[in-house]
């Protein structure tokens, strides 16, 4: 399987068949498992084999197929499937940190991630330092011998800042710190966390994997030692494991993940090029555009900038809302990476609770829009955006 190309892994990786030899992966809807004897039960609790299960909170055959398949696609040995992307983020951080530890994180993070780091972990004695993730010198200065862990988004939500991941990993590992990367915006198809040496990557499978607005999900991917060691120990005791029906639905979604994401990313690039220089916009941001502040490092790290772009409407909130309300194909919502195209106003929705000074630093202005590009015809999407901007 290690020699298979990504698209083949997405269809066949980690498959398990029952005695019936089914073609489509089976869904095992059970929370417990039966042992042939009391001795067999004792033996399983003492040493769990690769294809043995005790309780659905610890593992399930359907969930394990999903874990094996997705983790291999992003380049890691193993994975633990979680109830949501934020369950994966929280689980990975909490499993590896204790009171007195020091964390260095990029300041450009999803609001819930900032809450977990500063409010939740802060209450339990974890020290957190936030830095400008695009400034290598800031990482160099902040990561010390006392740093236990580094956390960042490879491409930030919503304004698409790009971190020099290989540099951050090198500096962190030199100080003995682990690196966790949130790959929601990078997508599992274009993820480069493993290639850059990050210890763990976190994926919100709600996004591109499900990709159709149906189910929450998350995955922590990393080495077998980390996943089946501290990660599994924490997750199985605290109840963050994915349920088998969600795992089965998202497992089947992997069949088309490469096709969907590549189509969406290609369309995102076309839209970014079409909008750049529009007289009603101050700026357009997409990693593969030469005008992007981190364009060079983005091109070195990945062949695509993902399925999301951002732009700033001239005239602030009033003009921005007028444009959003005029859209006919794009839905106004707060999710992204769906098969349906979505427009989001981060300043009043996903990042509403951020203090204004933080919004200003991150470039989340009243005119900023995050566009998630779906699977519609790209010419229709460009026409929809153009007619909405013409209303201004």
Structure characterization notes:
The protein is an alpha/beta fold. The chain folds into two domains: 243 residues, Aspartate Aminotransferase, domain 2 (3-Layer(aba) Sandwich); 134 residues, Aspartate Aminotransferase, domain 1 (Alpha-Beta Complex). Helices cover 41% and strands 15% of the residues. Helix 5 links the parallel strand 2 and strand 3. The mean pLDDT is 95.
User: What is the count of distinct domains?
Assistant: 2
The profile of the biggest β sheet is: 7 strands, mixed
Main β-sheet, spatial strand arrangement: 1-7-6-5-4-2-3
Radius of gyration: 21 Å
Tally of helical segments: 16
Q: Roughly how much helix do the residues carry, as a percent range?
A: 40-55%
Name the overall outline: globular
Main attributes of the structure:
seven-stranded mixed β-sheet, 392 residues, Aspartate Aminotransferase, domain 1, alpha/beta, five-stranded mixed β-sheet, Aspartate Aminotransferase, domain 2, 16 helices
Provide a short characterization of the protein structure.
By secondary structure, this protein is α/β, with parallel strands linked by helices. The chain is 41% helix and 15% strand.
Explain the layout of strands and helices.
Blueprint: H1 6-12, H2 38-46, H3 61-73, E1 78-82, H4 85-96, E2 102-106, H5 111-123, E3 127-131, H6 136-142, E4 147-153, H7 165-174, E5 178-182, H8 187-190, E6 200-203, H9 206-210, E7 218-222, H10 224-238, H11 244-253, H12 257-275, E8 281-285, H13 295-301, E9 308-313, H14 316-326, E10 331-332, E11 342-344, H15 356-362, E12 368-372, H16 378-390
Parallel strand pairs: 2-3, 2-4, 4-5, 5-6, 10-11
Antiparallel strand pairs: 1-7, 6-7, 8-9, 9-12, 11-12
């Amino acid at each position: 399987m290690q020699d298979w190309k990504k698209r083949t892994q997405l269809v066949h990786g980690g498959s398990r068949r029952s005695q019936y030899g089914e073609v489509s992966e089976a869904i095992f809807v059970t929370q417990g498992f039966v042992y042939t004897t009391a001795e067999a039960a004792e033996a399983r609790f003492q040493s769990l084999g690769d294809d043995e299960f005790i309780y659905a909170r610890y593992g399930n055959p359907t969930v394990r197929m999903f874990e094996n398949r997705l983790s291999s696609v992003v380049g890691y040995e193993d994975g633990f499937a979680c109830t949501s992307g934020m369950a994966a983020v929280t689980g990975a951080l909490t499993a590896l940190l204790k009171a007195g530890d020091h964390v260095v994180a990029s300041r450009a993070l999803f609001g819930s991630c900032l809450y977990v780091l500063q409010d939740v972990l802060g209450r339990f004695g974890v020290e957190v330092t936030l830095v400008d993730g695009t400034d290598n010198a800031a990482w160099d200065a902040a990561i010390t011998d006392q740093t236990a862990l580094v956390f960042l988004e490879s491409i930030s939500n919503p304004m698409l800042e790009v971190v020099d991941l290989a540099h951050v990993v090198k500096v962190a590992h030199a100080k003995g710190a682990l690196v966790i990367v949130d790959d929601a915006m990078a997508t599992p198809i274009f993820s480069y966390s493993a290639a850059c040496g990050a210890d763990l990557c976190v994926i919100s499978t709600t996004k591109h994997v499900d990709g159709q607005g149906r189910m929450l999900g998350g995955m922590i991917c990393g080495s077998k030692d980390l996943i089946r060691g501290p990660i599994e120990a924490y997750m199985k005791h605290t109840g963050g494991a994915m349920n088998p029906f969600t795992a089965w639905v998202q497992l089947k979604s992997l069949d088309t993940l490469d096709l969907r994401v590549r189509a969406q990313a290609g369309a995102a690039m076309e839209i970014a090029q079409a909008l750049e220089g529009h007289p009603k916009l101050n700026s357009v941001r997409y990693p593969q555009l030469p005008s992007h502040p981190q364009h060079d490092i983005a091109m070195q790290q990945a062949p695509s900038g993902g399925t999301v772009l951002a732009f700033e409407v001239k005239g602030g909130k009033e003009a921005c809302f007028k444009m959003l309300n005029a859209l006919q194909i794009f839905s106004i919502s707060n999710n992204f990476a769906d098969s349906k195209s979505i427009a989001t106003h981060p300043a009043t929705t996903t990042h509403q609770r951020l203090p204004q000074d933080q919004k200003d630093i991150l470039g989340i202005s009243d005119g900023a829009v995050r566009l998630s590009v779906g699977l519609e015809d790209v010419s229709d999407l460009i026409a929809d955006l153009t007619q909405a901007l013409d209303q201004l």
